[in-house]
Backbone:
């Protein structure tokens, strides 16, 4: 395409001098966002290591290393290292938000300095610079237009509206434009015929000259970056609960350990055995599984969600998915495809709707094809404007026998584009015009009756959420190539028809909305588009669209008034970025757990403020992706439903694992403490606890993570926003399991002692029984429902691998003399094994029967 860069003349402004630009750059800084508060990698690492759960893991590993228990020490240190690395990576990723903003706001810029054109990095643009802008340029800074020729700008990154807006120049003389005045108070993105352009937006048509009024953090996009800095990320509720639990367990274990050492040493006089008993008891109560489980579940959950084409940027969001009660979704690019397409053609009272899918398109009837071809001729030959692209996409092949010779751009007094095409080899010309229906009616000289009829047809299309353009054509001859008229009004136009353009709804959206509703999730649309368009899209998507709240109405409300209106409104239109943030915060203040989808820069603050920010990965900006917790890699709205399903499954399985950890630690701690109370020989040494931990760790972290979802997972209401993972009924159920298991094991232990079994055989019998009952507790906790079939189903290969490996190792220890001596075991007879197997079966059956009658409030729903 020809070079459209505006050329300067002696009467045009000269711009800043190089010295002035250098001085302003030094005084006001680069045209980029400041890095205040930026956390370096060492600082992030220090913060992570100082967290109690990670510190406890590392400290425990070091203690075991000093005591010589190398295996346990290395395992704990490995777990701690993995956890720390994962946390550091996640935290450092969140620091990329401002980096993405800096990249977006620093394109190359063509400026006029001291009367000469210079191409400079966008970060070096200063206030007062003169920008020379042409079609296809990205605006490097906020500016005020001095000259504008047929200019249209795509501001969807800031407003969310996919339709470009018209721009006009200031109604003042050029003068000395190197002014120090700030942007006028009325300068804001969105709206036609304004003389302001904004950093990060894109020129889709025309050219112009503009004076920079704001750079860096003072620009509109810079204000969004500052808003992101002020939004605090609250630690997830589950993480906070786990931290508290770890502290309680750690303190309680330490106290019990000291008491055990003192009790054993004072009553028996053997302080070495007392220390061994204390270490065993402390190890049995050490809560390292809780942070381990939390880490493994989030990492594995992120992997499972990635298989559904969703990238997890903040693993903590996984635990929140199951609690989401409101999904706030942007319209442009989220519910819709973020492209303009011709949705309806109207000629002589007859309407035709082309297929939205080009591959399914049928040949247009002749009169409608004429309408589309005329619209294409009134569009730019090389289209940047989305509406021009829509005409080119639907029109027949370009007529190479016609040559564009003259154009009339949009003007405030005539909102239409007119283009003159010469028919090859002749003095005949074809003239095509498209634009606002009232402007085309003026060109066609409609009378009152014709205008009323046109208005009725336009309103019918607009009510369906379409942007309506009218098309007209004329013919002319110009044998001597005389100058063309100053205005297209001098041509004799004939009205051709109306064209309705729309941003098509994604095909997967209606089904996804229905599934969200079945899962108890309310879907709310927040858009910068017009109320009529928003209502039409909401209706097509299956949203409740009767009540629509606009940005102006929100602006007039206090936060309290907004909170009162929000429950009854599912569609918000003409919303600015700050208002999106107010909506999200109002929903959160009302107790909702908010998930927010979006793809533009304007969505970044609300994505970060929401409990779950979900960015579109295909069309989404880097800023949106970096601010979000989840990214939909294929931009499929339906993937959100899959993600919610997986999130609920992950949370369910996490509860099962935590319940198992509670339950299994009670019999272990009880058996470590029982000999101290009754004065019998010790059962456990540190090596026994280390073996149990080798079983418990993979069970609670891998086996439960691999469990399939509950059958009613998507028929439940979201769990309560203030629900706790460790609710009282949940803890009581886990304690009950542990007490029953301890009771069975204590009975076997005391029975063996009463029969006079040697100490080594008693220890072997009790330990083998504990391992088997451990596996029994896994079966009980596999499902929330009471069913032996669920407990014994074969759909979890990880469980059966763990069981086979555990039993094989246990058999090896019992059969191999060196290992048996290391564990201080005696030989077990067939009757002993039958007794322990019977005890395990009775335990599983008993707990499954108790589960049927036990009301675990919130076990499933929370």
Residues:
């Amino acid at each position: 395409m020809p070079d459209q860069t505006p050329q300067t003349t002696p009467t045009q402004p000269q711009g800043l001098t190089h010295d002035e630009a250098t001085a302003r750059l030094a005084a006001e800084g680069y045209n980029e966002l400041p890095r205040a508060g930026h956390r370096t990698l060492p600082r992030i690492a220090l913060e992570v290591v100082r967290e109690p759960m990670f510190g406890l893991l590392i400290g425990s590993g070091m203690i075991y290393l000093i005591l010589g228990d190398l295996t346990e020490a290395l395992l704990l240190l490995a777990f701690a290292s993995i956890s720390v690395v994962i946390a550091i990576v996640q935290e450092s990723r969140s620091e990329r938000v401002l980096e993405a903003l800096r990249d977006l706001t620093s394109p190359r810029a063509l400026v006029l300095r001291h009367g000469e054109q210079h191409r400079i990095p966008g970060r070096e643009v200063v206030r007062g610079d003169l920008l020379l802008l042409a079609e296809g340029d990205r605006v490097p800074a906020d500016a005020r237009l001095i000259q504008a020729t047929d200019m249209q700008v795509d501001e969807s990154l800031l407003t969310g509206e996919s339709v470009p807006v018209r721009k006009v120049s200031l109604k003042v003389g050029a003068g000395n434009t190197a002014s120090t005045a700030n942007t006028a108070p009325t300068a804001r993105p969105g709206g036609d015929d304004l003389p302001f352009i904004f950093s990060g937006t894109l020129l889709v048509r025309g050219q112009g000259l503009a004076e920079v009024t704001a750079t860096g953090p003072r620009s509109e996009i810079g204000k969004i970056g500052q808003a992101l800095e002020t939004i605090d990320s609250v630690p997830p509720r589950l993480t906070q609960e786990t931290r508290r639990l770890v502290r309680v367990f750690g303190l309680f274990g330490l106290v019990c350990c000291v008491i055990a050492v003192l009790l054993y040493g004072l009553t028996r006089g053997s302080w070495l055995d007392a220390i061994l008993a204390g270490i065993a008891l402390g190890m049995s109560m050490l809560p390292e599984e809780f942070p381990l489980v939390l880490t493994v579940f989030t990492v594995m959950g992120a992997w499972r969600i990635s298989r559904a084409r969703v990238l997890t940027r903040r693993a903590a969001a996984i635990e929140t998915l199951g609690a989401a009660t409101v999904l706030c979704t942007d319209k442009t690019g989220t519910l819709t495809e973020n492209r303009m397409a011709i949705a309806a053609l109207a000629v002589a009272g007859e309407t035709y709707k082309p297929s939205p899918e080009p591959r399914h398109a049928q040949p247009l009837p002749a009169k409608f094809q004429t309408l589309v071809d005329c619209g294409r001729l009134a569009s730019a030959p090389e289209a940047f404007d989305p509406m021009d692209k829509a005409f080119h996409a639907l029109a027949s092949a370009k007529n190479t026998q016609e040559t564009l010779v003259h154009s009339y751009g949009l003007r405030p007094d005539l909102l239409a584009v007119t283009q003159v095409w010469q028919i090859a080899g002749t003095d005949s010309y074809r003239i095509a015009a498209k634009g606002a229906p009232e402007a085309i009616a003026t060109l066609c000289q409609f009378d009152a009756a014709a205008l009323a009829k046109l208005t009725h047809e336009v309103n019918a299309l607009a009510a369906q959420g379409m942007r309506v353009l009218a098309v007209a054509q004329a013919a002319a001859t110009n044998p001597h190539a005389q100058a063309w008229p100053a205005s297209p009004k001098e041509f004799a136009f004939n009205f051709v028809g109306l064209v309705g353009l729309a941003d098509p709804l994604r095909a997967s959206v209606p089904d996804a909305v229905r599934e969200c509703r079945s899962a108890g999730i309310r879907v709310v649309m927040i858009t910068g588009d017009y109320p009529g368009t928003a209502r039409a899209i909401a209706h097509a998507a299956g949203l409740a669209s009767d009540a629509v709240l606009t940005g102006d109405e929100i602006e007039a409300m206090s936060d309290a008034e907004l909170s009162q209106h929000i429950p009854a409104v599912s569609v918000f239109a003409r919303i600015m970025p700050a208002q999106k943030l107010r909506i999200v915060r109002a929903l959160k203040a009302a107790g909702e757990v908010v998930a927010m989808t979006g793809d533009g820069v304007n969505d970044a603050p609300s994505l970060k403020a929401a409990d779950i920010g979900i960015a579109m990965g295909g069309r989404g900006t880097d800023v949106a992706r970096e601010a979000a917790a989840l990214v939909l890699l294929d931009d499929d709205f339906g993937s959100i439903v899959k993600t919610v399903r997986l999130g609920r499954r992950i949370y369910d399985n996490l509860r099962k694992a935590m319940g198992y950890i509670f339950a299994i630690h009670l019999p272990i701690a009880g058996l470590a403490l029982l000999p101290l109370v009754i004065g019998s020989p010790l059962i456990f040494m540190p090596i026994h606890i280390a073996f149990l931990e080798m079983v418990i760790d993979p069970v609670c972290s891998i086996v439960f993570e691999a469990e399939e979802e509950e059958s009613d997972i998507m028929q439940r209401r979201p769990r309560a926003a203030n629900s706790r993972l460790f609710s009282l009924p949940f803890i009581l159920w886990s304690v009950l399991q542990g007490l029953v298991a301890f009771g069975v094991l204590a009975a076997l232990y005391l029975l063996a002692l009463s029969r006079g079994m040697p100490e080594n055989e008693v220890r072997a019998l009790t330990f083998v029984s504990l391992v088997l009952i451990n596996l029994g507790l896994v079966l009980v906790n596999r499902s929330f429902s009471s069913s032996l079939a669920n407990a014994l189903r074969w759909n979890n290969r990880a469980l059966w691998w763990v069981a086979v490996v555990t039993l094989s190792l246990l058999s090896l220890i019992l059969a191999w003399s060196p290992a048996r001596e290391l564990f201080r075991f005696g030989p077990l007879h067939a009757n002993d094994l039958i007794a322990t197997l019977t005890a395990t079966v009775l335990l599983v059956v008993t707990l499954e029967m108790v589960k049927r009658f036990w009301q675990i409030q919130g076990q499933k729903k929370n």
In short: The CA atoms of residues 365 and 441 lie 24 Å apart.
